[in-house]
Every structure is written in C-alpha cells, then in structure tokens.
Design a protein that fits this description.
18 helices, 423 residues, mainly alpha, 81% helix
Length: 423
Amino acid sequence: MAGDTGRPRFAVGFWRLWSATTASGLGDGVRITAIAVFATVLTTNPLQVALVTVAGQLPWAVVGPFAGTLVDRVNRWRALWICDVLRTAVLAVFITLIALGQVGVAVLAVIAFVLSSVETMAENLSQAVVPDVVGDGSLDSANSKLLGGQFVTTEFLGAPLGTALFVLSRPLPFVIDAVSFVVSTVLVASIKAPRSSQPAASTPMTPRVLVAETVAGMRWLWHNRLLRTVCLMVGLLNFAVLAVLGIAVLYAVQILHISRAMYGLLLLIIAVGGLVGLLAAPKLVEKLGRGRTIQLLLALCPLSFLVGGFTSNPILAAAAFAFVGASISLANVVTTTLRQALIPAELFGRVNGAYRFVVNGMSPLGGLVGGLVAGGLGLRAPFFLAAAVFVVAIAAALPLLSNRVVDPLVAAHEAKEKVEVHG
C-alpha cells in the first residue's frame, strides 16, 4: 500500500486516552499516599488507620461488580469523563472540609470509599474503550502503554509527591488530584466516540435487573473455561503477593536486617520490576505467544517466593521481589488483552466486573492469611505458603493456558476488529 510504513498505528484518540489515564494516575498516587499520611496525623490507633485503608479497598468487592454491569448500559466514552467530573466534585467538597478543619477519621474513610467506588467504574470503562482506539496496533501494545504510563505516574511520581505536598499543605495533594481529573475530563471529552461505545439496552435498569445482569456476568465468566482459569490464577497471584507484602516490613527488618528507611528502597525495586514487566510485555508476547508468556511467569513465581523464604540476603530478596513485580505487570497486560478479546462488547462491563471482584477480592484475604501464618509459624512461612499454593494450582492450570488454546482466540478477535475499522 502506498504510504504504508509497515508500522501499526493506533486509531485517533488513543494518545488522548493515554494522556488522560496517565494524568489521573498521577492524581491517584498523590491522593492515596496523602490520605494514608493524613490518617496517621489524625490518630495513632492502628485499627482506625487500617479502616481508612480498608474503606479504599472495599468498593472493589461491594460496588465493583454492579458498576461493571452499569458500564454495559451507558455510553462508555461519555460515562468515562463523567466519572472524572464526579471525582473532581467529591475532592472539591473534601478540600473545603479540610480548609474548615472538619476532617476526622470517619470523613477520610467516607471520602476514600466514595472515590474508590467511582474508580471501580472508571477503570472498567477505560478498559472497555481500548478496542475502540487500538486501530492497526495490537491490544498488547496498547495495554502496555496505557498501564505503563499510569504505573509510572502513580507509583514513581505520585506516591512520593503525595507525602511531600501534604507536608507543605494538607489540602495541596488533593488540589493536585482534582486538577488531574479536570485534565482527564477535557482529554476524554475531546475524543470522538465511535458508535460501538453505546451498548443497546433491551430493558430498563431496575435494582432487580441490575442484580440479575451482575449475576449473569459472573455466570458467563465461570462458564468460559479459559477466562475462568486466568481469573483464578491471577487471583491466586494476588493472594500470594499480599500474603507476603502484608508482613514485608517486618520481614525486611527482622530477616533481612535492613532499616525501615531501606525498606522504601526495597519497595522501589519492586516497582522497577513492575515497570520492566509492562515494557517487556509486547515483545515477550510477540516472541513467545500469549499462552506461553502466561505459563512462564506463573511457573517461575514459586521460585521467587522460595528464594524470598530461604534467603537472608537483601540483594537476593530484592531480585526475587522485582521478578514478582514484573510478573504482576505481565499478567495485567496479557490478561487485560484476553478479556478485551474474549468478552463480547455488550457484556464486557459486567464480566470484567466479576473478574475484578474475584481478583481484587483475593488480595485482602491473602494479607489476612499471611499475617496469621506469620504469627504462628514465623516470618518466612508466608513465602513457603505462597510457593506451595502456586505449585498446586499451576500443575492443574498450565495445560489450559497453552499458545494452542490462547493465541487463536485473540488473533481471531484482532482480525475482526481490523476488518471493522477498515470497513
């Protein structure tokens, strides 16, 4: 073809979506860290501080599945920028309360819950619209770039910036968060939404219909053998990681014999591993195939946990943790692509909500179990538990995640999308 450079291009609007998610990711990182610090300023009660954190995680279990169902009922592009407007309005109220000196632990918990509730829908929406702007590019490459930009601004920039801004002025990090959502609103609203962004609804939405369609999404996920397997594997990965991270600071101080200040460096190394995983995902998928990429990262995870459990060397432990961070990022990219390719567009929200319910719901459970195991058997025990869980689960699941099973399904979807794009 004349003028064809041979290099796949994303459709118009992709880089605006990337800019929007990257900007809001910065605000999220600033806010999450600042709220955690705010809680410790207001109280020294560990339970009250923990409740603020739990309030920010709870919506993924109690709101997320229903938010996913609503995603299938709305114009997705319009709803995406409306979510940003809502979060800006909530932050404006919160900033006003801070200025008036009316913020207590209960207010922090409510704000964290409300913002996370909107986030469950916004994240579902942002994943649902990616196929609209992928163009001639691959879903893996698109997801890698979107998740990578958000990861950098949230983990590397937002988290340390949130603490620094809070020290300067309590309202300042939340003002920055609000500005990030304003920027995201403008960018998303400027994207011309394709016709596919408006799902057809055959019946009016009522509480009964909402529950029925949410349950239907869970059933669809359960009856899809491949996605059910992937969902359970990623859920177990989250369980294992949180079982370890829940006691990681004590493990670092008592087993690795590093200071609490150096523990921050250990977390940074994990984040670097996560970034490497995001950047490497498209190349690995291209070279190995999606199925084999999943098999590789899952098969090597138990080894990383075993190294962490046996070693007292900070460098070896950091390398093991970095690989786990990379594995999580690789899993996020590949499994996001699988969901976008395998779930029918009109069902994406409710099925994706069910998927996130399982995957995110395993995280706090892993943290709880890890804490109990560490308390009874020592700080190394959660690492061995994580490795054992994975060995058993992977032995059963690996044959279901081969290239022969996975790649043809995604390839068929991408071919169909390109035909629709080019008419």
